[in-house]
Every structure is written in C-alpha cells, then in structure tokens.
C-alpha cells in the first residue's frame, strides 16, 4: 500500500484585501508568505493593546477583506490575517505530491499549522465578522486540516512499514477526523454558509471516510494474519472490500488521481481477500466471526493543531510599538485573559471527561435513536426490489420463456440420450452375435473383409457418450438452478401485495412496544442532555470571548487588580452551576438507559432476527432476478451444444445401423457355407 497514488487534499482560498505595501510578499505561496503573515499578526497584536482601534473606539479605521465585508475593528484585521495564515498553510500542504518522505512530513506540518491558526481564530476572536469565521466553519476547517495531517502521517507510516495494528489505528483516526468534518458538512446551517463548495467537500470527505476505513480493516486483517487468526483475517479483508466498494460508489466525478488510488487499493484488498478466503476454505477451516463481535479499531490521534503565539518575539520580531504607551494595562489584561482561559480549561476538562464516558457508554450500547426499532422499513418494499418488480412487469413472459427454453433443452437432451443408447445397443448386439458365431464355428478368426468402420463407430460413440455425461451434469445443475429461482421470479412478476407479504415482518406485543417507547424516551433524554451541554459550552465560550475589561483596568489601581478579577469572574458562576447540574445528571440518565436496555435485549434480539431474515429474503429475490439472464444464456448454450451433438449422433446412428447390417450379412454368409 505504500505505493498507492495519493488522494487530493482540500485547501482554502485566501481573503483578498486589495493592494498594500507588502502585498507581493504575502501572495507568495511559500514559507516567506507564512513568515510575513506571522510577523504582521504579532505587530497588530502589539498595536491594538496601545491604540484604541477596536470597534467603536476613537482610532478605529475601516478594515475590509475584499468587497463583501468591512469592519472598523483592528481585531477583524487580525482575524483575517489568521484566516489567511491557515489558508496559506492549507495550500502549501495540498500543493506537494507527497511522493517522498520529506514531502509527507512537510505537508503534515503545514496542515497542523493550518489547524493551529484556525483554532486560535475560533477560540480568541468573535465569530460574527463573516460567515467563514463562524464557529461551525472554523471547527470544520480544523477537523479537515487535522484529518489531512493524519492522512499524511498514515502515508508515511505505510512507507515505513510500521506495524499493522498501528497503521490501522492511524487510519481509523483519519476516519474519525473526517467523520467530524462530515457531520459539520451535513449540518444545514454549515451548508448554507459554505454554498456550492459544500457539496464538493462533502463528496470527497464521504468517499475518504469509507476509503480509510477500508485501509484500517485491511491492516487489521494483516495483523490477524500475523497472529495466525485466519477466520478474523477473512472477515477483516471482506469488510475492507465492502467499505472500498462504498468508496468507489461515492467517487463518481472525482479526479483521475482518486480513481487510480481506488483501483490500486482494490487490486491489493481484492487479492488479499481472495487469497485469505481460499486458504481458509481449503486449508485452515477456521470459523469466520461476525465483524461486530470483534473489538473495534480505536483511532490513534498522532497530530495536533500547532499553536499560534502572536507575542513570540522569535516569530514577530521586536515590538515596534514598545515606546508608545506603558505596558501595565496590557499586562493586566493578559493576566485576566489567562484567568478566563484557566476557568475555561477547568470547565472543559470536566466536560470532556463526562463526554468521553458518555461516548464510550453509547458506543458499547450500539443504540441509534433513529433506527432503534427499524419498524418503518417493513412498511415498504425496498427500492432495489421495486426496481426488479418494475423490470419484470414490462417483461411478462419472463418465466414462460425460461420454462420453454429449458423444456426445449430437455427434449434435445432426451433425443441425444435415446440415439446414443440405440447405438450402444446395436454395438452390443453385434458383439453378441459375433461371439455366438465364433462359438458355432470354433475359434475361427474373423473372416477377412468383415465390415469396416465398426471400431470407428464404437470409438466415436464412446467419445459422444463422454461428452453427453459431462454435459448431463451441467444440465442437471442448470435445471436445479432454474427450479431454485423460478418461484422467486413468479413472485417478483406478480402483484406487489404478494411481494410485500413474502417479506418477513416483526410481531410486537404491547409490552414490547412499551419497552421500545421507554427506550426511545431515555435516548431522547440523552440527546437533550448532549444538546444542552453543547449550548452551555458555546455560551461560556462566547461570554469569555466578549469579556473585555481593558477600560476598567486602565482606571484600576494595580493593588486592586486581584479583587477586580474576582468580581469580574463571578459573572460566570451561574453558567457554571448549569453545567455542573448537566454533568451530574449524566449518571442517573445512563443508569436509566442501562435498565431500559436490559429490558430491550429480548426485543432487540427478535428485531435483529427478523431484520436478518428480511435482508436475506430481499437478497435472495434480487439474486433470482439477476440469475435470469444467466440461466437463459446457459440454456441457449445448452440447446446449441445438444443441437450440434444431436446432428452428429444422428449421423453416427445411421453409420452404426449400416455397419451392423453389413456385419450381420457377413455372418449369415459364413453360416450358409
């Protein structure tokens, strides 16, 4: 897999701001452009702490990015610079073909730097400046960049032939990052913000999710192979093949580089699966476990958003505004910002700990509120089956044509068999008459001039008998296959009510329905708890973001700073109480869900069995439809074969009759001497 063609990467366009003094340096898509942007960002940070250039302040000037958005706020300029820094790093990461080890490392670093720029922008600036700086879009960009950085790391790991299990975990983490990005892309609000590009990104990301899931299971299969778990190897390779096929379906319209990568990977996975299945079927005979019985692959996040520090002198250079104003107010503001950051870190640590427990719990339960009962699917004939029914409705003679074709084949088959039997009987009778003659005349050798061609007829008859016997087995199998599919084809060609009636449906008692309703209610509580938690977290972040006490700090004595901080931080107490209540409620909600899930176990088992039967029935009916053309083709081939054989056997029968008559005549002459 180390030689697989590289997948394309997503990058973001730069914000345009017209012409300015160092415009040319910034527009260079290289490290110099990144360095210039970082220096400019740092100097803006130094400037805004001394001169009132914020929104509504005395020295505020219009700042614009292109023609669409203008704000009289220096923070907007900083936000645009940060955005362009992230966009430029994304371009640099995407430009490299990543065919060398160094190229993979450089691209990986660029994508991590891009994630760092977007993270700093999301966490330290207002989200109301423009749509591409909203919290949703920036979070999407972060997950995209981290996913692409992890993808570069995966490529490097495969190049280095790292252990299969590690490569599988790295690939699984790529999937996790892209799933987070896909969830954002599927959000209606995000879609409206992004516009047309949302569809292109979504198609590529969805395809990559299945593709890298396939890569993860490929390497889990390789690990199973190393551990000589041959049954597990088969199911992992089969799962990898299934996921790759899904990726191929989603890759329509993608560039040729994507198609090349998919074809290359299909050759690898397809070969692995066929070889593993064959070895297990004929050599190892290990039971192939169900995929859901095996431990899921946990992602290994080995990349991170590389932090941006606008005050790092090694990046920004010396502070060119150092002599303008005293730094006391700026230093105090920085201290207060650190207090807010500490408060946010403490709260987020608690939230993340609870979220991790909740995620692990829900993963172990494998409960999806949307499909927990799946009852709606039984009310309709699935589209794939409707398609087959519709196709047969315009071909009403399908079954009759198949039966007639097989009847014709059977007729020709019987005629050939009868002719071959008659030839064999003639030859056996001739041989018996010849023995009887020799017994009468004594051990007299056959008279010279006995009818020629008897041996040739016998030899040719044996050849045709052998052909007939081989074809007879195929003919029997063809009839068996026809009988297997005939009933299903009649069903598909009949009324839709009969098709629907043939599909299994679950039968639930009132108690079962009550169990389901209770489970759904608690699952809704879980989602409500999640949504409230996210909302409170967002409120906290926005409140911290907007909390600027610079004006108060200017008029506050240095000795009173600590007291002022304490007073200002009390504004967060109520929000913290709500969050604590939300986090504390989780234990009770999960306990109730555990109890409900225990009662649901029997219902779940029954529903799973019915769903399995339903899927099997659908697959069987679809297979019968798809087998029709093959049966007709093989039936025609059989008719052609036996028609040709019938002609040859008929000629041979005439020869056999003539030769046997001649032989009988000669024997009669010998008896009359």
From TrEMBL:
InterPro entries with a match to the protein in the record = ALIX_V_dom (IPR025304), BRO1_dom (IPR004328), BRO1_sf (IPR038499)
Q: Which UniProt keywords apply?
A: Coiled coil, Cytoplasm, Endosome
Coiled coil region boundaries: 413-443, 519-546
The record's annotation in Pfam families points to: ALIX_LYPXL_bnd, BRO1
Domain named BRO1: residues = 1-358
| Biological-process GO terms, alphabetical | early endosome to late endosome transport; endocytic recycling; protein transport to vacuole involved in ubiquitin-dependent protein catabolic process via the multivesicular body sorting pathway
An annotated GO cellular component of this protein is: endosome
Subcellular compartments? Cytoplasm; Endosome
Superkingdom, taxonomy of origin: Eukaryota
What is the protein name given in its UniProt record?
A: PTN23 phosphatase
Gene name of the record? Ptpn23
